[in-house]
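Notes from hallway chat w/ T.B., transcribed later so I don't forget. T.B. wanted the structure written out for a chain they're using in a teaching module, and asked if we could keep both sequence and structure tokens in one place. Agreed to drop them here.
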Amino acid sequence: MNPIRVGLLGLGTAGGGTYDILLRNREEIARRAGREIHVVAAAVRNLAKARAKVGDAIRLGTDPQAVVDASDVDIVVELMGGIEPARALILSAIAQGKHVVTANKALLALHGNEIFAAAQARGVMVAFEAAVAGGIPIIKALREGLTANRIQWIAGIINGTSNFILTRMREAGASFADALAEAQRLGYAEADPTFDIEGIDAAHKLTIMAAIAFGVPMHFDQAYTEGISRLTADDIRYAEQFGYRIKLLGICRRVSDGFELRVHPTLIPEQQLIANVHGVMNAVLVRGDAVGSTLYYGAGAGAEPTGSSVVADLVDVTRMQTADPDHRVPHLAFQANRLSDLPVLAISAVHTSYYLRLRAYDRPGVLADITRILADQGISIEAMLQREPAQGEDQVDVIILTHRTVEAGMDRAITAIESLASMVGPVVRIRMEALAS
């Protein structure tokens, strides 16, 4: 049987890892796919660098459209990143009846609805395992392995840069700025780390997982996103005193009137396995009604972890390309004509628990004022800690953990607390999740 011929758009970290795996495990991959998978062409920015890697084994050029248009390319693998020209190139490949594999989470989160509709109409596949959590096969787990389940919620550490920063802040007592600088020195963070530290990258990935878990279109524009840049080592230390760790979590949860779609720093109990995921590693916790909780852990980035997922997609496409399009696994797990219009809840409607850190003058009646305000909003206190003022100071930290309540009520309570004359500065609010059944 003739080999499947692949065109790579990009031969950098992910593209290079994909090429190396296909070359090294060529026989094993062919045994799994039923035929060999060959890279025949690649579009690159730096021809000399690419030639040094692959020699004369494949055709190299700088025009990605030429790779898409090539008659000897059966599957286009987009590993360029960014929105344009990646979107136009993928749509062009689909229009020509070519299958596509991509690792581009931002593109899918923003334009996945358009891309999947085009692929459905043309009868081709768009595979995207590498778009979420690098080498962890979470997309396949959600689309296929958990098909019998009504997914209740997903909570994931899905950005390695932010997880590394939080790990260093906890282990070394480093400030956010120092931990970020270390991540940049080690190559874990970009020169402009905004997408990572402000939760945008995690929100892209969460949007994709939520679409598959709940059978809904992509809703990135409705995702609540809050990053870690305002966290302090004090908050991490106080959280540990109560038995919690702080992680940047992507959370999607099915509720009675829609679903939650949110990324933010979160206190989680230290005995939870996901609370002990450190450094640049990723982990995704999925709760299904039949299977219960399942945890997926591994490298969320890197040449070969990402390449592993890309090659797995190539094998899937190779196996399924001759199948009737109506009998393939749907892009978003549910049949395209059965997607739900389940709404995304505004963050003000979300119910969760809270960690509050207040800076107040050490005066009689301060705690009574705070507890009265919380009680007025129906918010009950789970635990409270008041630090003794340092010698010569008249200000103290007050830490409060609350039971579950609606965010809108907490917003009102924080506004009222901050208006007290005894308060110094704004209230620090971090959401809490037990991640229990």
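Follow-up for T.B.: The mean pLDDT is 95. Might be a good example for the class.
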